[in-house]
Amino acid sequence: MIKQAPQSIQKFSFSKPPRIAIVVSRFNQIVTNGLCQGAQEWLSEHQILFYQEDLYYAPGAFELPLIAQKLAKSGKYDGVVCLGCVIKGDTAHFEFISLGATIGLMQASLHTEVPISFGVLTTYTSEQAQIRSEENKENKGREAVAACIESLALLQKI
């Protein structure tokens, strides 16, 4: 018999409270601030403490992987949430930055065996980015931190 996956996990059990780092790209700051706010609200709603000293700012999305890897290797954090925004322009720059951030974050997570979540918006327009960072339940920062916490809970269970 195949187990059905739960639609939404609301309760997590940890041997000790998880400590999460959040790394936010300063590029497209209006959007990334909204993602960061959403992530912090989700943690608060789930009674997971977050300290402002665990909030880090990167110049842009391309720099997220190195910073996330360093935080994951520090032993201080159980998970790292990376938030950024890359909006397509008229050149191929969008593709290079998006791909570099994506592969870099995946490699960092695999290398350190620490959940590093991908909360980098890759949109075609500013409007799409703004919608995904608004103060509501659809905020992609909320989704990124939820994925990190859920992954951490499952890894601890394994």
What's the gist of this structure?
Its EC number is 2.5.1.78. With 158 residues, this protein is α/β, with parallel strands linked by helices. It has 5 helices and 4 strands, in the order E-H-E-H-E-H-E-H-H.
Write the SSE topology.
Elements: E1 20-25, H1 29-45, E2 55-58, H2 64-73, E3 79-87, H3 93-112, E4 116-123, H4 126-132, H5 140-157
Parallel strand pairs: 1-2, 1-3, 3-4
Helix pairs in contact: 1-5, 2-3
Pathway: Cofactor biosynthesis; riboflavin biosynthesis; riboflavin from 2-hydroxy-3-oxobutyl phosphate and 5-amino-6-(D-ribitylamino)uracil: step 1/2
GO biological process, one term: riboflavin biosynthetic process
Keywords: Riboflavin biosynthesis, Transferase
Polypeptide structure, described:
This protein has 158 residues and is α/β, with parallel strands linked by helices. The chain has one domain (20-157): Lumazine/riboflavin synthase (Rossmann fold). Helices cover 46% and strands 17% of the residues. The protein contains five helices and four strands. The protein has helices at residues 29-45, 64-73, 93-112, 126-132, 140-157, and strands at 20-25, 55-58, 79-87, 116-123. Strands 2-1-3-4 form a four-stranded parallel β-sheet, with helices on both faces. Strand 3, helix 3 and strand 4 (116-123) form a beta-alpha-beta unit. The mean pLDDT is 93.
